[in-house]
Structures are given as C-alpha cells and as structure tokens.
Amino acid sequence: MLVYSAHITPRLQYITRFFSKELSTPEWQLTDDAQSFLTEQGARINYSTEVLDTQCLHIIPQGLLSQTGIQPQDITVTPLNGSPAFFQTGGALGFDIFAAAFYLLSRYEEYLPFDKDPYGRFPATQSLAHKHGFLKTPLINHWIQSLKKLLEAVFPDAPFRETVFQFIPTYDIDMAWSYRHKGFLRNAANLLKDAFSLQLSAFSKRIKVLFGKENDPFDQFGWLNRLHEKHQLKPYYFFLVAERTTRNDKNISPHHKAMKALIADHAIRYPVGLHPSWNSNTAFSILKKEKELLAAATGTTVNASRQHFLKLSFPDTYRNLLKAGILFDFSMGYADDNGFRASIASPFCWYDLEAETATDLLIFPFCFMEGAVVFYKKGDPDSGLAELHQLYDEVKKVNGFFSMIWHNSSFTDEGVFKGWKHMYETFIKERGRTTPDTPLL
Question: Closest by alpha carbon to 158, among 308, 348, 2?
C-alpha cells in the first residue's frame, strides 16, 4: 500500500504504521512525490487535498497530522457509515480516519486541561467517548473494518490480513493475603481496631486464619490456577512490591519469604509484570528499585507493567516506564467506568505527543475491571456479568483483543464481593479460552 501526502510528518508516519499493522503486510509506504504515486500500479491511498487522476482511495486531511503542539480541536461527532465519526472532510469515508484515530490513540484529550478525580486521574466522564456514547465500542476497530471494505472494493487483489480474537484475563495482586504474613504489629493493631469497633466477625476470622483454622480469604491462587488449567487460559499477573506500607500500598513486603515464593510460583506458570506502587509515580528511583525486586523474585527480566490505581499521567508515566526498561503496559482503561479508553481493542504503540515521536512502548488496553462495577457503579454480580458479556461481544465482532482486570481480593465471596467469585467462574465457563497458538507478546 502506497500512501501519498504532501506533508509527511511523525504523526502521519505513526498512524499509517498502525493501520498497516492492523490491515496488511508488508508495511505501508509513504511518499510525497505525486508523480511516483501516479505511476504506482498497486493499492494506493491519496491523503491530500489534491484530486489525483488515478485509481486510488481518497482521504481528505483535516489538518491534525500536519500540526505540532497541543491545542483544542473543533470536534463534531456524527454518524457515518453506521458508526460515530468526527473530523468530517468528505472523501471516500466522509471523514479523516487517520486524524481521528490519531486523536484517540494518542490520548490527545488527556494532554488538554481537565478536572482530575480525587486520585489525580483523567475520568471516563470527561472523555469524548463517554460524552458521545461510544465508550463501550471499540470504534477504531470498526473504522478499520470500513476502510478495509473500501480498499478491497477498489483493489481486490491487494493482500489484507485477518485479525484473530484474543482473550487475556489479568490480575492485580495489591494485597496477596488479608491476614497472613503481615507480622505481629500489623495484625495486633488490626485486632485491636476490630475489637474497639465491635467488628466481632472480623476479629474472629482473623484469629482463625492466623491460627490455621481457616484459609486466608485473599488466598485464591490455587482456585485460579485450577480454573486457568481447566479452560486453557494464559493470564497475566501484576504484583505490587512496594517496600514501604502506606495508605495506598498495602501488600506484604517483597522481602518476605512467603511473598517471594508466591511470585516465583506464578512466574513459573504465567507471565508476571510489575504493579508500580503509588509512591513510584513521583519517584523514578522507587520504580526502578521495585522492578529490580520483582526481577529478583521471578528470576527473569521484567518488561511488563500496570499502574496501581490506574494512575496514568501523560507523558510522564509512560516516559518513566520506558526509562525503567518496561516494554509492555496494561494500564489503558478507566477506573470509574468500563469501556475502551483509547477506543481500540488492539495493542498499539504509544505516541509521545509532547515530544512528537513514536515510541516502542506497546499498550495492551483493557475494557473491564470488576472494581468499576462494585465501587463506582455500586453494581451487583448480575449487572457485572451483563456488562462483561456486552464488552466481550463488542470485541468479538471485530476480532480484537479482549482483556479485563480482576483482583484476588474480589473472590472472597464476602461483603461487597458476595457472589462475584461465582459470577467470574460462570463467565469463564461460557466465554473463557485463549485463542490457541496465538502468542500475546
């Protein structure tokens, strides 16, 4: 595929490379030479305001990909070809698909001023996708399908690849155990707290667990292993290994032998990534140390991560991850609502908008987290299951990448998580199976 543009910019190079990966092989080529474009015999896209006298698909630029810097964009969302679209310019599709996809993938809106949530994050409610009703839709995947149909009609002999659906469950281990391995002082303080607040059932349960009469409620790892083996799943685990216990970082010390053993056991079975602590967001030295601690526990190189509390701040968070040697990140999603934060159900490389450069950090988006249903929507397992099915079906339609976040602490079948363990097992039985022979990384 040859793409003509009068102005070849880093933004255009990035987005055509993305479309090339999603649609075809070999990689698309860019040219600013109109004459060579006219003499080309293969499949062609004219990405310019010029009307060229040759058989090609014409996409008229909106201008975003020729700009530098970050500024508010004039966006009107309207239905086109059965899907919402913006940056309407006419042409074969009716809009500038390259600029619109770039706007969403680069998270352009998150560089503009916005009202932060209590954790300093960009909330789903402020996104273009939420405001215009396409948060639950992998919109870019639908645009890609529309573009592919047009290209196949114009160039029936051009090679296009078929995408394969992938399902990857992931788990954040914020706190491996509820009571065990926390040490005498932490457990004593919590026992006193339970007693003085008359939380007698919690007091009793803690005593029973500590004396080996009951299993720790957060220790769901054996059950998960059996579930994965039964349904041939290949999950990712992300471990919090903060050395200091704080309000937001409460896991067992990474130096504790039980924690080391748990991490090592999972590293043998599954891919393991870092769950950077809250404090690592503002201190690169902490991020670097935590990566080293996890690598020592796994005995392997750590190259994947997901932010604790989904704390993403552009561009600093991703720049720090790259600096630390992280190559794959799984944080692209919202805490307060489920859906597609970047409007995509496919892995994609991060574009550093401030530096105007494509990077090698590969982003794996997720579209569902149980905590969004429980804590933000105050939903029950039935509503959570319905939303899971809805999002799964949306990704299945486009043969995309479906990933979700769960926590071991959500499978306790207690309190607000009563019934969620059964719901998860039901979903896995109905839908869960990683596509065979399709490696994730």
Answer: 2
Region of 304 (left: φ > 0; alpha: ψ -120 to 50; beta: rest) is beta
Are 89 and 66 part of one and the same domain?
A: yes
Candidates 308, 301, 305, 298; CA nearest to 335 is: 308
CA dist 365 and 344 (Å) reads 8
Residue 200 domain-assigned (yes or no): no
Q: Say which amino acid occupies 22.
A: E
Min mean pLDDT across 165-174, 243-252, 285-294 is at 243-252
Question: Could you tell me which residues come within 8 angstroms of residue 155 by beta carbon, excluding any fewer than 6 positions away?
Answer: 42, 43, 44
The DSSP-derived string for 142-186 is: HHHHHHHHHHHHH-TTS--PPP--EEEEEEEES-S-SSTTSHHHH
More confident residue, 431 or 332: 332
What is the span of the domain harbouring residue 46? Answer: 2-154
CB atoms within 10 A of CB 136: 17
Length of the chain: 441
Q: Can you list the positions of beta strands (E) in 336-392?
A: 348-352, 357-363, 368-369
